[in-house]
């Protein structure tokens, strides 16, 4: 099982988020699963890799080669490093390689990664578990927005069933382990209003 973890690279975040990411990476490795991530050495990315590395887990970093030119620090504990030409190619590689996705707290890059896999799942182009790791209620506003999107009929309520939201690592990993493919049908075309 390869689990892709999306999350922030920021060094300015509260330590509670980095500790949660460390614990997540360690828990993934403890199941003998592989961690797939964006190869960064800092923030959520670095902490999740540190956690997996603490018990000699497999860590697969995927990063555009131009990151080296921009002097972004890459995690030295990766057991495999995959370089891509573009950010778009990086996301595609992550999506193809991963068996599941966990969305940790992050910024616009993380939001983009989440919404891409979420959209692909809605369109039945991807059938893999997606979990939102809601550390310290970080994603509460996002969940409220998704519910409002349903309430105002911009999205079917069945779309909410495509993701799992939890602040528990054990719950997320159990959801991933028990995920059954083929149960992701979505009413993504809303019924027309009666005239």
Which structural traits does this protein have?
alpha/beta, LOG, globular, Rossmann fold, 195 residues, disordered C terminus, seven-stranded parallel beta sheet
What does this structure look like?
This protein is of the alpha/beta class. The protein has a single domain, classed as Rossmann fold (3-Layer(aba) Sandwich), CATH 3.40.50. It is 40% helix and 16% strand. It has seven helices and seven strands. Helix 6 links the parallel strand 6 and strand 7. The longest helix has 16 residues. The radius of gyration is 17 Å and the shape is globular. The C terminus is likely disordered. Keywords: Cytokinin biosynthesis, Hydrolase. Its EC number is 3.2.2.n1. This is Cytokinin riboside 5'-monophosphate phosphoribohydrolase. GO terms for molecular function: hydrolase activity, hydrolyzing N-glycosyl compounds.
**Tally of individual domains:** 1
The secondary structure category is alpha/beta
Q: Enumerate the strands of the largest sheet in spatial order, edge to edge or round the barrel.
A: 4-3-2-1-5-6-7
What string gives the helices and strands in order?
EHEHEHEHEHEHEH
Care to count the β-strands? 7
- The CATH topology is given as Rossmann fold
Largest sheet: 7 strands, parallel
Low-confidence stretches: 191-195
Instruction: Provide the residue-averaged pLDDT.
Output: 92
Query: Measured on Cα atoms, how large is the radius of gyration?
Result: 17 Å
Percent range of helical residues: 40-55%
As a percent range, the share of strand residues is 15-25%
General form: globular
Number of helices: 7
- CATH architecture designation: 3-Layer(aba) Sandwich
Kindly provide the name of the CATH class: Alpha Beta
Q: What gap, in angstroms, lies between the N and C termini?
A: 49 Å
């Amino acid at each position: 099982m390869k689990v892709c973890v999306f999350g922030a690279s920021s060094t300015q975040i509260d330590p509670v988020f980095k500790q949660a990411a460390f614990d997540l990476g360690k828990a993934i490795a403890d199941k003998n699963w592989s961690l797939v991530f964006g190869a960064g050495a800092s923030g959520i990315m670095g902490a999740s890799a540190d956690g997996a590395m603490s018990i000699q887990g497999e860590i697969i970093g995927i990063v555009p080669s131009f990151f080296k030119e921009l002097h972004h620090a890459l995690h030295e504990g990766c057991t495999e490093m995959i370089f891509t030409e573009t950010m778009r190619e990086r996301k595609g590689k992550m999506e193809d390689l991963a068996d599941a996705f966990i969305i940790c707290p992050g910024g616009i890059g993380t939001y983009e990664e989440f919404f891409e896999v979420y959209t692909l799942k809605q369109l039945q182009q991807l059938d893999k578990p997606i979990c939102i790791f809601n550390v310290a209620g970080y994603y509460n506003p996002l969940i409220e927005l998704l519910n409002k999107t349903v309430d105002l009929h911009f999205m079917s309520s069945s779309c909410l069933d495509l993701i799992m939201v939890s602040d528990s690592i054990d719950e997320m990993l159990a959801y991933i382990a028990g995920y059954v493919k083929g149960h992701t049908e979505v009413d993504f075309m809303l019924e027309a209003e009666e005239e």
